[in-house]
């Protein structure tokens, strides 16, 4: 053996960390068959597999062992500590989104901190360069432990649209207690003023409901036209979807079997720690608008390995006001599955879907102009330590018109098992420009004769059937 310096070890470790562990296993196996075969394989991969040379990492923009909050005053901080509205170490960020501002202003990074129980002083905030979290739109909106239903009770996820509006879905629930009705709010990011509020009627949610994932569908007829807006919100534990018609200031609840979790997929193992979580519809992503002015909503339950799709023209149908049950054939599941569960997802303007998987902890891409199948999933980032649970995934447009991928990851398995340790980094925000991230990844090279939504088109034929002839639950037959 020739001597290897510490610097060489570091360089090798850095290079090898950029590749999928499964690829490295192939190299190891081939090496055992002899150097001639190994070099032949290396030559073929270098010449014929363009994805191998793609940049495969995300930059860590912010990271924390535990969140640090900026209070309006030391007195407010002391009061929050005394009342246990603030318990250091209890706060867990779940989602991220970014607003790039012009005029020399700093971009703003938004994060959400759901109130699973006590000790979260803020549920929606912005992160400064030092990593401190400040309440958004201000502390008074957030200084609320369920006593003020006009404030923010508990927010899991947000969405920023092309009209510079921040959409916030407030569950109204802390732990298992429904203190306030769920509400959907929109803030003008130019003024930080509330411009829309929709309080969900009690007929549209159940005792188990938890509306957590909003995606915003704007059908603009020209620059500055934001009138035709729908927001689709996933109910992770009530197993339904809320469609909010913003212009009509109304909403309807939609039920379907594909919103439910799969019992066989409710156990998770990440970095050697296991937990059970029977969550339904959570990951949701909108396709670009097609030539027929149609969009697809891609979605999946957390406790699943499947991906599903529905035409948004079905979700926009107001007949759900009187009948929430969607026809079984109105929504469809792709025949093939992921190898492990996935949480959040997002799709870019080219119809490429980005999502995290649990094992190995990775961010993958899939071009919707190809079949949804593992052979068409390609790794763009993999890291056993830093990408363990991608709970927030967003595609963000910057001021130059470039698209960026933003991902929030956490040691969520340690949150669930109660083993979170403030002596190690537990939460990270990652980002990179998508062209730089993809490089010449196979996700950028779909068949030339196919458009985005190819596989969705195959499994979702045009139909006028909106409602099913039955309801879910045996009691409906009585």
From TrEMBL:
Highest taxon, organism lineage: Eukaryota
Main location: secreted
Keyword field: Glycoprotein, Secreted, Signal
Subcellular location: Secreted
The UniProt record lists the keyword Transcription regulation: no
Pfam families reported for this sequence: MRJP
Family membership noted in the UniProt record: Belongs to the major royal jelly protein family.
Protein's recorded name: Uncharacterized protein
Lineage, top ranks: Eukaryota, Metazoa, Ecdysozoa, Arthropoda, Hexapoda
